[in-house]
Amino acid sequence: MTDIRKLDLNLLKAFVILLDECNVSRAAQRLSITQPAMSGILNRLRESFHDPLFVRVQHGMQPTDRAVQLGQIARQVLQDITSMLQPPVLEPENLAMTLRIGATDYVQKIVALPLILRLRRLAPHVQIALLPVQGQNIKTLFEQNKIDLALVSHFHVTPDMHQQKLYDEHYVCAMSREHPLANAPLTAERFSQLPFAMFSYNGGEFSGATDLALQALGLNRKVMVSLNNIVLLPELLQGSDLVAVLPAHFAQTLPNVHLQAPPIDIAGFTMMMTWHERTQHDVAHQWLRQIVAEVCQ
After folding, report:
1. Which domain holds residue 224?
2. Name one Pfam family in it (predicted).
């Protein structure tokens, strides 16, 4: 045989059974076919491999040397095909792969940090790469195969992307515990007069959700510092009169910072997990996404 397209895998299965039985009648019984049909299969095998494969002896048939050689290969081929058709079995403790997560500094602290600690216990051979996504299109990063998973707000996810909701986020007002207004009630007007520091997702921005809420009341605020690295905010707040409006999940991790509800309604956001089609059905990635969701509960 020189053309693999002419190979019938069912012939290989019959060939292996013939090798086991060395008897056409018994091989036919195992395959639940008639003896003439089994004889026909043997003839096809002989034509395919250009070898008699079996020769008659006193008590049945005996495989030729060529048949013995082919039989070893056929068994391995059938075993490999059977393995291909089996659903993959995931063993987290033996899982070795790299997971590339795109996320902002805020999400890296809130989600990625506990995720890494969890994976160190459950899947110690998994490597985690945390990659910044500020100012970049998430779908483009997926299409360029630069990330496997993205942890971003719903503003950066489109309906055609695979996605899962992680949690709803709201904002709190943060300031130093030594701030003169740390324990004072804030009105919307007083709030708008405070000097602010803010986190800018794309960098260089001086307005955001807080400004939209104030403008709806006919008020404006003054943002004195715009940062695109949220981890700098704690020290900035502790050492100055600046205040900030921060995601509650992040603000609650900050030391020596006073938190209180803002005196205005500021629209929050939903934190999402999104991934590319190429990992949608991958068992390892499905398990890792489940761990991410559990971390966020």
Report:
1. 171-267
2. LysR_substrate
Distance in angstroms (rounded) separating the CA atoms of residues 295 and 293: 5
Please check whether residues 189 and 256 belong to one and the same domain. yes
Residue 30 is given by DSSP the state H
Same domain assignment for residues 213 and 136 = no
CA-wise closest residue to 268 among 117, 190, 155: 155
**With contact defined as beta carbons under 8 Å apart, do 139 and 277 qualify?**
no
For residue range 4-50, what is the model confidence (pLDDT) as tens digits?
666 778 899 999 999 999 999 999 999 999 999 999 999 999 988 99
Examine the fold and report which residue of 41, 67, 85 is the final residue of a domain before the chain moves on: 85
SS3 assignment for 230-294: HHHHHHHHHCCCCEEEEEHHHHCCCCCEEEECCCCCCCCEEEEEEECHHHCCCHHHHHHHHHHHH
Q: Tokens 């490597």 — which residue?
A: 127
- CA pair distance 283, 285, nearest whole angstrom: 6
Buried b (16+ CB within 10 A) or exposed e, 79-96: eeeeeeeeeeeeebeebe
Site of tokens 């890296």? 108
What pTM did the predictor assign? 0.73
Residue 143 sits in the same domain as residue 27: no
In this structure, what CATH number is given to the domain that contains residue 279?
A: 3.40.190.10
User: 265 is written with which tokens?
Assistant: 């309604």
Integer distance in angstroms from the first to the last C-alpha of the chain? Answer: 59
Q: How far apart are CA 192 and CA 231, in angstroms?
A: 24
Amino acid at the residue 291: I
Packed helices 283-295 and 113-122: angle between N→C axes, nearest 10 degrees: 130
